[in-house]
Amino acid sequence: MASASLQFFAFILALFGVFGAITATLLPNWKVNADVGSNIITAITQMQGLWMDCTWYSTGMFSCTLKYSVLSLPIYIQAARTTMVLSCILSAFGICITTVGMKCTKLGGDTDSKSHACFAGGVCFILAGIFGLVPTSWYTREIISNFLDQSIPESSKHEPGGAVYTGFISAGFLLIAGIIFCTSCFKKQQGAWIYPSKPHHFPSTEQESNAGYNLQDYV
Q1: Which long-range contacts (CB under 8 A, 24 or more apart) does 195-199 make?
Q2: Which one of 3.10.620.30, 3.90.1010.10, 1.10.760.10, 1.20.140.150 gives the CATH number of domain 4-27+70-194?
Q3: pTM across the whole model
Q4: What is the pLDDT of residues 93-142, one digit of tens each?
Q5: Which residue(s) pair with 34 in the sheet?
Q6: In whole angstroms, what separates CA 143 from the centre of its chain?
């Protein structure tokens, strides 16, 4: 029962991780630059994401521009696009597989099949978490290095946006969920190795041995 409750808790974490990864992939505020002029009316906030760049004016206007050209983007943005999409796909597969392998569901067949499905789903979550940590860490490193570079003007420097933090937290949820699923299945298999099943008795062998003793008695 405790293992089933733990798997359900890991499944909830994985759901938050999936939604967070998808949200972080689509949000345009991976890095933010606030430019405040002499008048508060001229204040603008520039946001850059993986797929579009947006500008928000203090007057309430909001405009976005899609990034159509892939080859013109920096290498860390191209890598972030690929790894975040892979993270979303793997985490979605993990949700489907663990739904079959969880103990609280009636899908997946026998106990061994459900255990293998649960382990496979945990591996998908771990890979999705790793794919989510790579772009967020790399993107943050680029932002910090540009911010500390004295040759770059202040107007061109940015800070990490909410999408980066969402990606970090979502990757952590996916990693924790994957470890819980894999550990629960591993403990079950380890218990089977420590406590092996009792040897089976074969009645035919016992009958043959008894028959042998009976023949000796007649002699």
Answers
A1: none
A2: 1.20.140.150
A3: 0.78
A4: 999 999 888 877 777 667 778 888 889 999 999 999 999 999 999 999 99
A5: 45
A6: 24
